[in-house]
Automatic annotation (TrEMBL):
The lineage of its organism: Bacteria, Pseudomonadati, Pseudomonadota, Alphaproteobacteria, Rhodobacterales. Residues 1-77 form the Lipoyl-binding domain. It comes from Sedimentimonas flavescens. It comes from the Bacteria. This is Acetyl-CoA carboxylase. InterPro entries: Biotin_lipoyl (IPR000089).
Length: 77
């Protein structure tokens, strides 16, 4: 099992825009470099990418939830 951690503090978004589907849904497979969400810091949006590959992603935080640097965002099998 591997974890994807927040690279910095801010607000975590699972979708690229409010009317768009999430980058990844619970249960999806993830490849190295896949975008799983965005972190917003002072109106700047930084992509969160996976540095590991895995199956069955499970998000630990909800959409629009504030996070701190190092907070686990998702687990991968």
């Amino acid at each position: 099992m591997a974890q994807i951690l927040s690279p910095l503090p801010g607000t975590f978004y699972r979708t690229p825009a409010p009317d768009k589907p999430p980058y990844k849904a619970d249960g999806d497979a993830v490849a190295v470099g896949d975008v799983i969400g965005l972190i917003e810091v002072m109106k700047s949006y930084i992509e969160v990418t996976s540095d590991v590959a895995g199956t069955n992603i499970r998000f630990s935080v909800d959409n629009e939830e504030p996070v701190m640097a190092g907070t686990p965002l998702a687990d991968l099998d």
